[in-house]
Backbone:
């Protein structure tokens, strides 16, 4: 029943939040219109993604989002310190992270998360070998970085989307 | 206190934009210049939001939103041009 | 305006401006393109993020009604920053490869 009424719950919720935020949650009428649109629009756009992933673990997704927010703060602190510190002490490196997930959308999420967090920018996802190429600002130990990305970000993403 | 913060904010972001301008002029590669333009754009958004607080007016927010959208599209278009223009030669 | 909220708004503004500056310092100072990519993708995004939060807090407390639309700018930047960084990196790699061919 839920599935038929809301084919994409996550999309509906994000649409509604975006509507509320852009309209400053001004009036009940505008919120109702937003709610109506967020129920209707997923029906129109769902043929665009015939085999889209569903969030299987919503509470884990929320906790993961909170952790990323915290990591972004830490990342900024770490990058800021390295930016004003001596340039010669940096160990910039390209690192290949072999992936266990096998879904383009999940890989995009992982790539974005990696780009926003500690000293790493994702460069490319090789969809043949499923390798995420990452550039690290300061990685004296690339293997530790690979382990961290896999444990800290990839494992929760795989659990959330069950892929 | 708020006024002091706002004025210092203007100074800090102004300095940031000067540094971006320096990188934009210096290069050395086109990709550096695009990155500098993108950063200049993001700093301009921050400046607009800050100006909105100073003038206590919500109108500047609309400008910030447009700048955010246009800046992203411009960066993507420039990168795509670099990627595809080279392929066609 | 409540002094505690005024303090919070001022702190957020200073934090945002400081991170925007630090990101730009990285862009100006670091030695090659890929290291330069790190400053703007993180620091400036957080800079604008903190600034937007300050603005949302300021307008919500000084004017009638909620002011949440600043959050939309913030979300937009957090979604687009990795995409532009990714495309810039791809363009740079592509150009590097061409230089090696010549």
Residues:
């Amino acid at each position: 029943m839920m599935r038929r009424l809301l084919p994409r719950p996550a999309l509906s919720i994000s649409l509604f939040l975006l509507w509320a935020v852009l309209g400053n949650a001004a009036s009940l009428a505008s919120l109702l219109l937003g709610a109506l649109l967020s129920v209707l629009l997923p029906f129109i756009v769902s043929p665009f993604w015939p085999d889209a992933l569903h969030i299987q673990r919503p509470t884990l997704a929320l906790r993961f989002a909170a952790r990323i927010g915290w990591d972004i703060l830490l990342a900024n602190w770490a990058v800021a310190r390295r930016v004003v510190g001596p340039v010669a002490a940096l160990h910039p490196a390209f690192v290949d992270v072999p992936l266990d997930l096998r879904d383009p959308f999940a890989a995009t999420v992982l790539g974005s998360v990696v780009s926003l967090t500690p000293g790493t920018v994702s460069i490319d996802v090789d969809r043949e070998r499923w390798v995420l190429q990452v550039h690290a600002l300061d990685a004296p130990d690339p293997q530790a970085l690979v382990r961290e990305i896999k444990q800290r970000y990839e494992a929760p993403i795989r659990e959330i989307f069950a892929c | 206190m708020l006024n002091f913060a706002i004025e210092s904010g203007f100074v800090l972001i102004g300095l940031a934009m000067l540094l971006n301008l320096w990188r934009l002029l210096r290069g050395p590669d086109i990709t550096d210049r695009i990155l500098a333009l993108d950063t200049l754009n993001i700093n301009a958004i921050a400046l607009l939001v800050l100006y909105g607080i100073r003038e206590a007016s919500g109108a500047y927010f609309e400008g910030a939103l447009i700048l955010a959208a246009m800046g992203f599209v411009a960066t993507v278009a420039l990168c795509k041009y670099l990627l595809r223009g080279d392929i066609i030669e | 305006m409540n002094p505690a909220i005024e303090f919070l708004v001022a702190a957020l503004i200073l934090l945002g401006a400081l991170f925007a500056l630090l990101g730009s310092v990285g862009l100006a100072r670091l030695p090659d393109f890929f290291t330069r990519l790190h400053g703007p993708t993180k620091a400036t995004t957080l800079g604008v993020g903190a600034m937007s939060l300050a603005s949302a807090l300021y307008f919500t407390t000084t004017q009638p009604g909620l002011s949440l639309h600043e959050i939309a700018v913030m979300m937009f930047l957090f979604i687009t920053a990795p995409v532009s960084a990714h495309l810039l990196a791809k363009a740079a790699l592509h150009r590097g490869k061409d230089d090696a061919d010549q």
Chain B has three helices and no strands. Helices of chain B lie at 2-26, 30-55, 59-88.
